[in-house]
Amino acid sequence: MEPLEPMDDGTADDLRLFRIWSRASRAIFSNVGRDIESHGLSPDNFMILELLYNKGPQPIQKISERLSIPSGSITYVIDKLEKKGYVERRQSQEDRRTSNAVLTDEGRALFDDIFPKHAAMISRNLSVASPDEKRALAELLKRIGLHAAALGGRAGRLLIRDILRTIICPKQFIFSGDDRRHAPLRGPEQRKRARCEPLRRPEADYPFAAVASNP
Asked: Region Disordered: start and end of each range (predicted)?
């Protein structure tokens, strides 16, 4: 067996960057996931409420496309938010065939309370970087992410909500190739993870490094 050729400096630097980036991302997403879970919300719930909180009423189909929640699942998610009293459906004045999701007073009061805390938690995670470093890093990560998405195509893109779900509900996910299934749990573990919802295959991709409140 022939010995492996030594890596060039560029490849070694790439691998080191990838390891550091992966560890940093997992640490941050773990903190974000715990924060979302502490408010009794799933990642999908949180992203929808954040979108409505920052951007106002949205057509339900647009929410599905924007947050990459499958059209077959968005009705179920909105129904759950309606039952909690956070969201209500209203017929669009522009197109009566379309229903808009609207944040209720209770939903707005919830996010008036938790969103500033959530934003502050994210800021604490990034506080070691200067404002200029954050802006430069944001642009760099956007370039890298778009390039990686183009290389991997649709199937190669990670969904932020998927990452959060695997952190919040790690024991509920079974990975088999590109298939993701929700594994049923029993007893105390089932009750503990009751807020975690089934993960269905996405019909659209959630843009890399996007945030629900962005344009």
From this structure: 179-200
Sheet containing strand 87-91, strands side by side: 58-59, 99-103, 87-91
Q: Which amino acid is at 94?
A: E
d(CA 44, CA 77): 8
Nearest by Cα to 46 from 62, 67, 76: 67
Closest by CA position to 137, among listed 9, 13, 20 = 20
CA–CA gap between residue 44 and residue 41 (Å, rounded): 8
Q: Measure the CA–CA gap between 13 and 145, rounded to whole angstroms.
A: 18
Domains, the chain: 24-192 (1.10.10.10)
> What are the tokens at 126?
């990034």
Per-residue pLDDT of the chain (215 residues; tens, 9 = 90+): 555 566 677 888 999 999 999 999 999 999 999 999 999 899 899 999 999 999 999 999 899 988 888 888 899 999 999 999 999 999 877 777 788 999 999 999 999 999 999 999 999 999 999 999 999 999 999 999 889 888 876 544 445 556 555 555 544 433 333 333 333 344 444 434 444 444 433 333 333 333 444 44
Read off the DSSP letter of residue 190.
H
Token pair for residue 13?
Answer: 């630097």
Residue ranges of E strands in 55-204: 58-59, 87-91, 99-103, 173-176, 179-182
Q: How many CA atoms lie within 13 A of 189 on its CB side?
A: 9
